[in-house]
Amino acid sequence: MEQRVLGRTGREVSVVGLGTWQLGADWGDVREEDALAVLDAAVAEGVTFFDTADVYGDGRSEQLIGRYLAERPDAGIFVATKMGRRQAQVPENYVLDNFRAWNDRSRRNLGVDTLDLVQLHCPPTPVYSSDAVFDALDTLVEEQRIAAYAVSVETCEEALTAIARPGTASVQIILNPFRLKPLEAVLPAAEKAGVGIIARVPLASGLLSGKYTKDTVFAQDDHRTYNRHGESFDQGETFSGVDYDTGLEAAAEFAALATGGATPAQTALRWIIQQPGVTSVIPGARSVEQARANAAAAGLPPLTEATLDAVRDLYDRRIKAQVHGRW
């Protein structure tokens, strides 16, 4: 598994990581033993980077990772967590006292004294322009509660504001063949500044796997049921903000681009991996088989120029008008 330096952390992480939102059981029930098996399978395939958050399963995802780290202290795992969504999403809540309280909870959940990386979890836009917020984050580093800090963003404009901050180690942003806007300015700016890029929602909530149809039924507690139009949080988090029917048609066309025995999902991950400036992509996995298949994308040969051009053409024809301006 290729390792790349995660921006200003100076630490290397696997080019394919593991997103663990689903292990918090926010996408439907996941048994503890199954979650731990997914973590173990990913590590066995060379994954060294787990991404989580304090609100995934109200801390369950962090706790499961903490248990795994305790059982495998030699695994060399870098854990990025997030904070900021445990209270109302208003700038006034992004203060040092709250940061310390949220960090203390995450440190207990993960069983560590110092968190590898803490990301602001898609905060209100004014937070990115607040000197006081970033002064507070610097304080957390000085207090050795965290080794580094970063942001997870909704928009390219938020990403660019965060990249300009000298202490921002990395930016987590939605990037996949259905979300190309970050390629225009965000990735070049991050690369120039030495800021890492973590690509999230890489399969557009599974659309790019090519496995869904109009008859697919998601569980009631799955965000792909209850947040299709942004009813509970930003619409971009679900199917990358693409209308489901439009997404199905585009996904079928994308699936035809998969060659050489690769699955559509692996092709999407490979596309992300080879975008200049990307550090790591963090697909989720609900099974051992998914974890292994995702990791295998790192070993695929680079996509050809013809395939890259076909992805751009697909985006321009079917997706851009829906999502480009919004994010």
What does this 3D model show about the protein?
- With 327 residues, this protein is an alpha/beta fold.
- 37% of the residues lie in helices and 12% in strands.
- It is built from eleven helices and ten strands.
- The protein has an eight-stranded parallel β-sheet.
- Strand 5, helix 3 and strand 6 (117-121) form a beta-alpha-beta unit.
Topology overview:
Layout: E1 3-5, E2 12-14, E3 18-19, H1 32-44, E4 49-51, H2 60-71, E5 78-83, H3 96-110, E6 117-121, H4 131-142, E7 149-152, H5 156-163, E8 168-174, H6 186-193, E9 196-200, H7 223-226, H8 244-255, H9 264-273, E10 280-281, H10 288-296, H11 305-323
Helix pairs in contact: 1-10, 2-3, 5-6, 8-11
Search tags:
37% helix, 327 residues, eight-stranded parallel beta sheet, 10 strands, alpha/beta
Shape: globular
Structural class: alpha/beta
Beta-strand proportion = 5-15%
How far is the first residue's CA from the last residue's CA? 32 Å
Listing every helix as H and every strand as E from the N terminus to the C terminus, the arrangement reads EEEHEHEHEHEHEHEHHHEHH
Low-confidence runs: none
User: Care to count the β-strands?
Assistant: 10
Helix content: 25-40%
Radius of gyration: 18 Å
Q: Overall pLDDT, averaged?
A: 95
Number of helices: 11
Q: How is the main sheet built?
A: 8 strands, parallel
Order of strands in the sheet with most strands: 3-4-5-6-7-8-9-10
